[in-house]
Structure formats: C-alpha cells, structure tokens
Amino acid sequence: MKIEDLKKHHPILELVSKKQPVYWENKGYKPRLDLSMSGMKVEFIKEAHKRLERFKPVFFKLFPEVRDGIVSPIVEIPKMKQALSNLYETKINGSLLLKRDDVLPVAGSIKARGGFHEVIAFAESLAYKHGLLTEKQNDYQMLLSETARKLFQQYTISVGSTGNLGLSIGLIGSALGFRVAVHMSIDAKEWKKSLLRKHGVNVVEHSSDYSTAVEIARKESERDDYSYFIDDEQSQLLFAGYAVAALEVQKQLCQLNIDIGPERPLYVYLPCGVGGGPGGVAFGLKAIFKENVHCIFAEPTASPCMLIGLVTKLHHKISVQDFGLDNQTEADGLAVGRASSFVGKLMEEVLSGSYTVPDEELLGLLYVLSEAEGVFLEPSALAGMKGPVFRSKKKQGEQSVHLVWATGGSLVPDQMKASFIERGKESINKFY
Fold first, then answer.
1. Facing residues of 355 across strands?
2. H or E segment at 204?
3. Which H helix or E strand runs over 130?
4. DSSP strand E in 250-315: where?
5. Are 117 and 244 in contact (CB under 8 A)?
6. CB distance 381 to 406 below 8 Å
7. 8 A C-beta contact, residue 49 and residue 244
8. Ramachandran quadrant class, 177 (left: phi over 0; alpha: psi -120 to 50; beta: rest)
9. CA 311 to CA 24: how far, in whole Å?
10. Which residues have a Cβ under 8 Å from the Cβ of 46 and sit 6 or more positions away?
C-alpha cells in the first residue's frame, strides 16, 4: 500500500508525517492476553533473573558500586505531579512515580539489564563449553580468572547502537575481557563514544542512522567465527534481560504498600526507540499484573517508528523516512527510523497505546523535573513524562498509579547537563 493510501486509511499518520504530537489508542489491545501464545516464553524472564543473580559476585568484583545487583529504585515525585498539573492545566489523578533506571549501576540506563544479561549469557555459555564451569564446579568467581580472561579475549562482541546499549555492552564486555566493537550511528553523543574508548572499546563511527549501523555490524560479525553479534532488533536474550525489571517493580510496589488491581490500575510510560527495552518491560509487567497494567510507549515526533509500525502493522517493513520524517532528535536513544519486527508484532495485543512528543517539549520537561525534584534525565528519558497528562485527560477521576520510566541520564557530563537545563528553560518560555 502506498504512503498516501496508508494516510487515508489511518488519518493519524497524516499528523505524524507533519511532526504533530499524537496519542494513539491501540484497538487491538487485549487486557486478558494469554502470553504463552505470543511466541515469547515467560520462563525466559525467570531464567534471565536467575542468571543475573548468579553473576552478582562477578558484578561486585568488577564494579564495587554494584551491591544489590542491576536494580534501580522507584520514587514518588509529588512536586513534579503538581508541576505537570499546572503546566498542562490538567489534574493528575492518583500517584506519580519515577522508575530511576537513570541511576542503574555502571551503565546508567535501562540498557544495563538487557546488555549485561546477553553478555553474561554468552560468557556463561563459553565457560561451560570450555570446562571453566561444570555442574560440580559452578563457582562464578572462576570467570574472573586469568584462564577465563584469555578465553574471552579470543572473542569480539559486536553491536550497533545509538549510544546507551553500546555503553552497557561495552562496559561489561571489556570488563570481562572480551574485545568489543560498538558501531555508533550518527545520532550517538560524543561523550558516549569517549567513555567507551576510555574502557578500551573499539568505537566504529557511521555517518548513517541506527538501522544502517546495525546492519553493518551484523554483516561484519557474520564474517568472523570469533565474533558474537548482539542484535538489538531481534534478540530474545536482550528482551528477557529487560523484562526482569518487572519483578523489581512488583517487589518495590509491595514495599511502598501500593496494591495494584481493578480499582487501582498501573499505567507505565516507556520511552521507545527500536522497541527492545520498553517491549521487554511491557511483556514482563503484563505477565505479572495482567489486565491491571497498561503499558504506553512514548516517542519523539521525528522518530515514531514503533507507532508507525503498529498502526500499519508493517513494523520493520516501513520507516519514519517513508513519511518524510528526518529521524533527527535530541532524544538520541530514541532516534530509530525502523522498529523491531520481533517486538512490534509482540506488542500488537500487549500495548495499550502510544504517543509522540516534540523535542522542545522534552527539553521543557527536563527543566521542570530538574527544578521540581532535583532530578536530571537525558532528553529521551523525559518522553514518558507526558503520559500521565494524556491518561488523566482521558480517565477523569480514576485513582491510578502512574509510573514514568526514567531510561537514562546519570552519566551525562556536567557541562552537558547544564546546557540541557538551560535549553529546557528557554523551551518553557517558547513552547508552553
């Protein structure tokens, strides 16, 4: 079907092509979805959780700041709730929480769980294959030995990234002794490249976007028998690692004495790029909270690849460029032109909805959060902050729990933080 025909069939796409902010409600959403029929096994999440637990001693030895594993807190942000209500002249119903993946140990973003999980899964498989680990000898400290390092040094882990996934894989991969090649798209920030190089990672720069960087990384890896390619678009190991976060959320909400149910549903707002991170989290949450959780993706107006894929059901077969969008956004982690077909198809009945936000609004919300709560997030992590406003307008009076997923920001250099905050202050005056 031609683009103009798609626009006529789906009028929302006309607005999308003009970079107009939109909210899309998924008519295919199924509250009581049987996830066992999805093709992705719920058991994978439990296996990923157990693997991350087994590696805790290894993480702690490599990174002393990792004491409790790859976990992040949930905090209430009442001042931001009031600020949103004032800014958008809409009462935010229920409580507003922030999932602080921006302070995840080492990698400082949502990508830590997925990236760390796939790297350690590869390391574990090599260790068993070469006899470093056996059923009788299962002391994971062995993976820090000189013998293990010599084994891992023979292999290159390769990945294509806009930034944060590359950071995650680069930091844990190089720490274990692997050679790591991160193919960075044109959107990747210079400071992320510098940090990777500082840790001995081979950063391959591309003048093209994310999809091209991934494709080149994939092809180069296929030519080397000692290269392991981590596929951000299709990997079930990455997906399962991200999904483990749902177990965290369940435990943390219990600690906060927050009961989720029909009278108090949970709405979760997830910034979305290619879809792996938010898709994994959404899948995990759906497995735990079932019909009482509603997951909503948030994307920049310049790069709404998942929304376009879901609306048309064409997924990876269509790109934002097909609609005249340039895929240029300050939300570098979300600067993806073509969505994951694996995740897109999986989300067709899992996702409650999706919306888009312009860069100026992301920067404005960055400033407001910094002022209200003293929390700095990188621009892409603010995409979820508009979600509670949309839901409160649609569900007047509902006592919901709103959980905004803060996907990254703690590693951003101080000078850049100050610049983003200043630009956000300017955006407040222009945009609102």
1. 23, 298
2. strand 202-205
3. none
4. 266-271, 293-300
5. yes
6. yes
7. yes
8. left
9. 8
10. none
Residue for token digits 């709560």?
Answer: 373
Q: Say which residues have a Cβ less than 8 Å from residue 346's Cβ, sequence separation at least 6.
A: 38, 39, 40, 279, 283
> How long, in residues, is the chain?
432
Instruction: Give the dihedral sign, CA 162/26/247/369.
Output: positive
Contact 378, 413 (CB under 8 A): no
Q: Which of 383, 332, 403 is nearest to 167 (CA)?
A: 332
- For residue 316, the 8-state DSSP code is G
- Encode burial over 182-197: b for 16+ CB neighbours within 10 A, e otherwise: bbbbbbbbeebbebbe
Q: At what angle do helices 276-289 and 43-54 cross, to 10 degrees?
A: 110
Output the CA–CA distances (angstroms, integers) from residue 187 to 191, 193, 207, 367, 380, in the order listed: 12, 11, 9, 22, 12
Q: What is the mean pLDDT of each run of 10 residues along the chain (432 residues)?
A: 92 97 96 76 90 95 88 97 95 94 94 96 97 90 96 96 92 97 88 93 89 88 94 93 97 97 96 96 95 98 98 97 96 94 94 97 98 98 97 78 96 96 92 71
Exposure string of 13-51, with b = 16+ CB inside 10 Å and e = fewer, is beebbebebbbbebeebeeeeebeebebebebbeebbeb
Write the single-letter amino acid at 181: A
- Strand ranges inside 237-326, DSSP E: 266-271, 293-300
Question: What H or E segment, with its residue span, contains residue 387?
Answer: helix 387-394
The Cα 78–Cα 34 span in angstroms is 35
